[in-house]
Amino acid sequence: xxxxxxxxxxxxxxxxxxxxxxxxxxxxxxxxxxxxxxxxxxxxxxxxxxxxxxxxxxxxxxxxxxxxxxxxxxxxxxxxxxxxxxxxxxxxxxxxxxxxxxxxxxxxxxxxxxxxxxxxxxxxxxxxxxxxxxxxxxxxxxxxxxxxxxxxxxxxxxxxxxxxxxxxxxxxxxxxxxxxxxxxxxxxxxxxxxxxxxxxxxxxxxxxxxxxxxxxxxxxxxxxxxxxxxxxxxxxxxxxxxxxxxxxxxxxxxxxxxxxxxxxxxxxxxxxxxxxxxxxxxxxxxxxxxxxxxxxxxxxxxxxxxxxxxxxxxxxxxxxxxxxxxxxxxxxxxxxxxxxxxxxxxxxxxxxxxxxxxxxxxxxxxxxxxxxxxxxxxxxxxxxxxxxxxxxxxxxxxxxxxxxxxxxxxxxxxxxxxxxxxxxxxxxxxxxxxxxxxxxxxxxxxxxxxxxxxxxxxx
Length: 459
Description:
Layout: E1 6-8, E2 25-30, E3 42-44, E4 53-54, H1 61-69, H2 98-102, H3 112-120, H4 127-137, E5 140-141, E6 151-156, E7 162-170, E8 176-181, H5 182-192, H6 199-205, E9 228-231, H7 234-244, E10 254-257, H8 266-269, E11 276-279, H9 288-303, E12 308-311, H10 314-318, H11 321-326, H12 330-334, H13 339-343, H14 353-359, E13 375-377, H15 393-405, E14 413-416, E15 419-421, H16 424-437, H17 445-458
Parallel strand pairs: 9-10, 9-11, 11-12
Antiparallel strand pairs: 1-2, 2-3, 3-4, 5-6, 6-7, 7-8, 13-15, 14-15
């Protein structure tokens, strides 16, 4: 028996949305009759764009029908019709003009952060690599004022809109000494000089939130198949790229940052739908950041079909209390190591023994050794790819029949040199759900490939 009489249609049938007119609308159905409710009742799947959702329990429709069926017609006017709920308009986002971003893309010779990478760190990076990471993330410089020499970290969304530009000043060890935002610096400069604010700045400063996307988010479209590494601060994302390699190699991680602890939100992370996401929380007292983020991802995974968040708890296990209390992060350990050892053979990310010993004298541990329920990456990578037809229906049916007849245990299975399955039944269940929900979508082809590879091993 259903808890609610009126529920959203669970089939794949979509209708035209009353608001945006896209064929992305899921209607409510009456579970007692099997009929659709009036056409205005339903929810648009374009959650980030349209937001239309008219629930029959929230505007009196369900109650009115119940009263009708109970014979209490006197309570309902003869001309009563369910009223469409007025939706709140989606707030218009204001962005920084591209010209403002372009003005920061110079004077790297006075940029403390960039010059530290080239000269002052224990193992200076190659000029070509630093130039590439500047270009990749569009890092810039502040050329005048009290933050002259500071680096700029732009937050550019997947549509290439500049959502925010963070300004950070670093000392010679690349530790933060000052931080601000470029729009705020511009606003103060104009106000001090009694100059009017441009229209874009007036609109921008009226917003409640400014950093509403991931650092590096603009790279997701360019590198659609790379697994993602998610950290807290832009500096850590830059270090991760310089140490583990650039995303031009499809096996390499695409390093992104959320900005700060509280920015690990669904609104920001929904852009990662369908990705493998390796999460590296900063250290914190009593592991609070790690616990909070890990708890949140359980809900996020249920809402983001095909997305898997895999946490590394190596630092949590081995870091001394002093480092936890100071909120150290992965970058604090990486920068003490020779980057050439990490990229010699372009392996999958793994903390080398030297990094582990920086934290503790504990034995070498894979950085992804935390309870990744499905796949644990190992240092070497072998890609398993099969040419697939446009529709996977037959392949999915064969795989379902095969695994249905097979008694699977929870014992680990080495899928290939790069992946180890910890819980085989869960692996099969989740992967089948993903390929069925995304049939023929090439972005999800690796899920089908892994199932075929497992079948080959278990056959």
